[in-house]
Amino acid sequence: MALAKISGENRRIKSILFLICCAFAGIFPHLIEPSKNLLPSITLAVLLGGYGLRVVLRDRRENYQLQKEYLFKDENFFKTLPKVDVLVAARDEENVIERLVSRLLSIEYPEEKISLWIIDDGSQDRTSLLLQELSTSFSRINVLSRPLMSGGGKSGALNSVLNKTDGEWLFILDADAQLQSNVLLRAIALALNGGWSGVQLRKSVVNCELNQIAACQAMEMAMDAVIQRGRLACGGVSELRGNGQLINRKVLESCGGFNEKTITDDLDLSFRFLLTRSPIVIMWDPPIQEEAVESFSALLRQRKRWAEGGLQRFFDYWPLLISKRLSNLKKIDLSSFFLLQYVLPVVSFIDFIVSIILFEMPLYWPLSIVAFGISSLAYWKGCSQNSEGPRLPSPNFINILGATVYLAHWFIVIPFIVVKMSLFRKSLIWEKTDHIGS
User: Residue 241 above 90 pLDDT?
Assistant: First the structure.
């Protein structure tokens, strides 16, 4: 079954079936006798909580980290570096485009082995004009312009430049990316030394001190890195996160390129790498730095896109995810992740509605408490570690409590998206996050 051909098929029908299954799971405990109605939630809490605890405890920073000193131990390292294409898809980024170019030019890598590309994807602000001026001033910056509504979103923009480049590796950045000058050397060294097909830099927030929403996003990114590395250590799955991803071109081509039928190219590509047995590693230091969204409304817009793209990939690839392509450990990992990330919010929402109608207590609270508890532990572990990037918020009780409560927004976003996907057809447009140049 070709990966490039199955994406996007019957998503609405699959969403409806998923919603029906979640509705049944949410209603069923209310139909059995009171002495046994907590049994489904307690059983799942023990099984999923046990796996989640194992994941967080198995995370070890040193397992997937290459120290800076490694770069200077091997005299042949710089002579054998592969060619890398640095790609940035930009639309309406006038606030950050000049800073981006400065960051790209500061990357430490042999000039003959690196090419820098910015794809102007139909910008309607001053981005196009600024890129023309910058490419004239700095000959190393290559600019490819696409007309507005060219199609394919960010994936289409990235695909458009592939036939103009020939690097063995692709380093994908967002327009607001801020990075240390030696980050590419260290990511390449980690990839080559460990035999990885992809390296995802830990994401960090440059404006975490702006407000509580930004601080919670900084903690969430640290938590995500802890969980992903723990999943990998348990024989599970780690994923790309879009900004700061280093990927092998041959693997990308074997996957059919970037998927233009999804709204989250990174999550979709993660599954394509997984199904072609191409491992991805998470690098803790140095991180890729980006702006956090600054308001709750902007956060909800961003998370709705992430939730929809995350569900799309499970709906698209589930026949292959349960096939012999994946090991049993990876299937267990994906099942646990899917139940906690997507099923639990929808089932809990339905459980809550039914409990109001029947004047009863919700019945999935044991599982929810365990899920939030595991998240709190991952928050503490992530924010307790040293960081070469922006300072992480202190893992004190107040911060962890606030960040744990903040996670409740997923229990609103995911049920909303499931209903939306069940009722309406999706128009594939690039719903980018606005960057203000923090």
Answer: yes
